[in-house]
Amino acid sequence: LQKLIHLLQATDDPLIQEQALITLSNSAAFSVNQDIIRNLDGLSVIGGMLSNCIPKVKEKALNALNNLSMNKKNQEKIQVYIKQVCRSVESAPLNSDLQLAGLRLLTNMSVTNDYHEKMTNSIPCFLHLLSEGTERTQIQVLKVLVNLSSNPAMARHLLRAQV
């Protein structure tokens, strides 16, 4: 895992970045690896890939962060990327794998009320995706909206959102 994280930092080759991110994402299926990746500062290295201009690299980074977001300690570190993820969802092509990867991460990050306020500005986008997206996109957006609606503090934002 340490070598993969170092490789991710050391290369500009998108194909190598993609493969390293896929491997890290698969490794994150095991909770012990989630802790190891966090302790090796892998979350910030993977999070740094969200700025990559190659959509496939960004998508794989979102998938890895999604798998890593299954524990509270990782969520505390990943939450700094929520607004960036929201912007990626908004700017990604409609129904793209990139957009879906961002929505899956936002679903996990919205399971608790801890980070809902970071998603407030994206509610109009979520509602737009709900009306314009394919069934896969709609289902993922609904998961985010259901999570947000479980928080009474979000009711005003959800009801006042302009679509």
Low-pLDDT windows of residues: none
Overall tally of domains: 2
In N-to-C order, the SSE pattern is HHHHHHHHHHH
Which structural class do you get from the secondary structure elements?
mainly alpha
**Radius of gyration from the alpha-carbon trace, in angstroms:** 16 Å
The global form is: globular
Beta content: under 5%
Tally of helical segments: 11
Q: Main beta sheet, described?
A: none
Terminal Cα span: 43 Å
The total strand number stands at 0
Mean residue pLDDT: 96
- The share of residues in helices is 55-70%
Membrane topology: Single-pass membrane protein
Subcellular location: Mitochondrion outer membrane
Protein name: ARM10 protein
Domain Armadillo repeat-containing: 1-163
